Structures are given as structure tokens and as C-alpha cells.
């Protein structure tokens, strides 16, 4: 169970306390639990929907989106903001792009990107509520976190040292591929092939951008990938 608690502590704002500093091997195995954390998020959002009952769709969508952001502590939105700033401000240069990602300040491109992503998520949630199909939302967080597992399986981590390096170095790759396959089958069964196909196209497109510009991924670009995968999956469900 330790890898799951590590994954939950890292990916969520839920009050999780670990018994000491985990080993690098345990950190690597925690990646296998990322889709499970996504399933937990999806289940909690579904329970919140049930608890809100007949709340008007727009208000309920806002509450669901707020809970969604709070569950992750806005961790991945921060990565998306940093990546957006760096991608534009880096002017195609690897070193400059990596340097901008380290800057804690957010520029106008970061703000615009966050507003657009959250606006699109909000509108998609309104559509799901109006259709009575909120159950489909359960698998969307799974897609995003399975995407992180897939990213670490096939993409170099370009910042030496730190948490991301430990995850990449100690990820059990055969088990990781098996978890990714099971996650894909679950999404296909629950939502359908269309959403899975859209998520796969977006995943490989974003990975190609990372590899072309940076030679791999960083923690920020991984967070950006998660947010954009969730958005793509959610839009695929409603469109």
C-alpha cells in the first residue's frame, strides 16, 4: 500500500502522512498507482455530484470544477502555467525554456492558458450535467494520470536529480506497461474508444513537442500534459 500513499500524497491535497522518507524504489513504484489516484478523484467528484442533487447545472459545474482543482492542490495547473510561459518565451531554445520554467512568476500567457483551460472544463461539465451523463466524468482523471505513467515509460526526464529523476529511474517498466494497458481497457469499457483515441493523439503530440524542444520531459511539462489530457478527454466525451 505504500506506493499508493506516496502517489496520493504527491498528486493530491488530501491529508496523507507517510511513515518517514520513502525509498527511491518505492517512489518509482508509486507511478503504478497514478491511475488509481485518478479513479479516486473521479469517484469523489461523482459523489459530490450526487450530494449536490438538484443544484442548477452552472453552479454545480463551478463547484465540481473547484473541487477538482482543490483535490490536486492546483499542482498540475502550476506546471501548465510554467510550461505555457516557457514555451512562448523560450523562442525554441532549450536552455532558455528550462530557465523560464524555474521562474515562479506567471506571465500573461500563463494566465490566458489557465483561464482558457478552466473555462473549457467548466463548459464541458455544464454539458455533462444537462445531459445527465456525469458518470462519464469518473474516467477523465484516470486518463490524465495514466498519461503521466505513459510519459515516464517512454520519455527521458531531463532535469538531473529531484523527485522526477527518482520516479523515472525506479519505475518498474513491465508492470507500468501492464497498468497502462488495464487503464486503457477500463476507459474504453466505461466511456468508449473515441475518448481514448483523442487522448492518445493528444498525448503523442505533446510528447513530440517536449522531445523536440527539450529532449524529454520535466515536472512542469508532465503537469501540463496531465491538464491538457484531462481537457481533451472531457471535450471528447461531450463532443
* Low-pLDDT regions: none
The tally of domains stands at 1
Q: What is the H-and-E element order?
A: HHHHHHHHHHHH
Counted beta strands: 0
Q: Structural class of the helices, strands and pairings?
A: mainly alpha
Please tally the helical runs, counting DSSP H or I stretches of 4 or more residues. 12
* Gap between N and C termini: 38 Å
Radius of gyration, in angstroms, nearest whole number: 17 Å
Q: What percent strand?
A: under 5%
Q: What is the residue-mean pLDDT, rounded to a whole number?
A: 93
General form: globular
| Overall helicity | over 70%
Largest sheet, if any?
none
Explain this structure to me?
The protein has 239 residues and is mainly alpha-helical. It has one domain (2-238). 77% of the residues lie in helices and 0% in strands. The chain has twelve helices and no strands. Helix 1 packs across helix 2, helix 5 (75-89) crosses helix 7 (108-131) and helix 11 (193-214) runs antiparallel to helix 12 (219-238). The longest helix has 24 residues, at 108-131. It starts with a helix and ends with a helix.
Features:
239 residues; 0% strand; single chain; globular; mainly alpha
Amino acid at each position: 500500500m505504500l506506493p499508493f500513499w506516496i502517489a496520493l500524497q504527491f498528486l493530491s491535497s488530501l491529508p496523507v502522512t507517510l511513515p518517514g522518507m520513502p525509498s527511491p524504489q518505492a517512489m518509482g513504484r508509486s507511478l503504478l498507482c497514478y491511475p488509481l489516484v485518478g479513479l479516486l478523484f473521479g469517484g469523489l467528484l461523482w459523489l459530490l455530484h450526487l450530494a449536490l442533487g438538484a443544484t442548477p447545472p452552472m453552479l454545480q459545474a463551478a463547484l465540481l470544477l473547484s473541487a477538482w482543482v482543490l483535490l490536486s492542490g492546483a499542482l498540475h495547473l502550476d506546471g501548465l502555467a510554467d510550461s505555457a510561459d516557457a514555451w512562448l518565451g523560450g523562442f525554441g531554445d532549450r536552455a532558455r525554456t528550462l530557465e523560464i520554467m524555474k521562474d515562479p512568476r506567471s506571465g500573461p500567457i500563463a494566465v490566458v492558458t489557465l483561464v482558457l483551460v478552466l473555462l473549457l472544463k467548466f463548459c464541458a461539465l455544464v454539458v455533462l450535467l444537462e445531459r445527465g451523463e456525469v458518470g462519464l466524468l469518473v474516467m477523465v482523471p484516470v486518463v490524465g494520470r495514466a498519461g503521466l505513467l505513459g510519459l515516464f515509460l517512454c520519455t527521458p526526464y531531463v532535469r538531473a536529480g529531484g523527485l522526477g529523476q527518482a520516479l523515472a529511474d525506479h519505475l518498474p517498466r513491465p508492470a507500468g506497461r501492464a497498468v497502462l494497458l488495464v487503464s486503457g481497457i477500463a476507459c474504453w469499457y466505461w466511456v468508449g474508444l473515441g475518448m481514448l483515441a483523442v487522448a492518445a493523439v493528444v498525448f503523442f503530440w505533446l510528447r513530440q513537442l517536449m522531445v523536440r524542444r527539450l529532449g524529454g520531459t520535466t515536472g512542469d511539462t508532465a503537469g501540463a500534459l496531465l491538464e491538457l489530457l484531462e481537457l481533451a478527454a472531457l471535450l471528447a466525451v461531450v463532443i
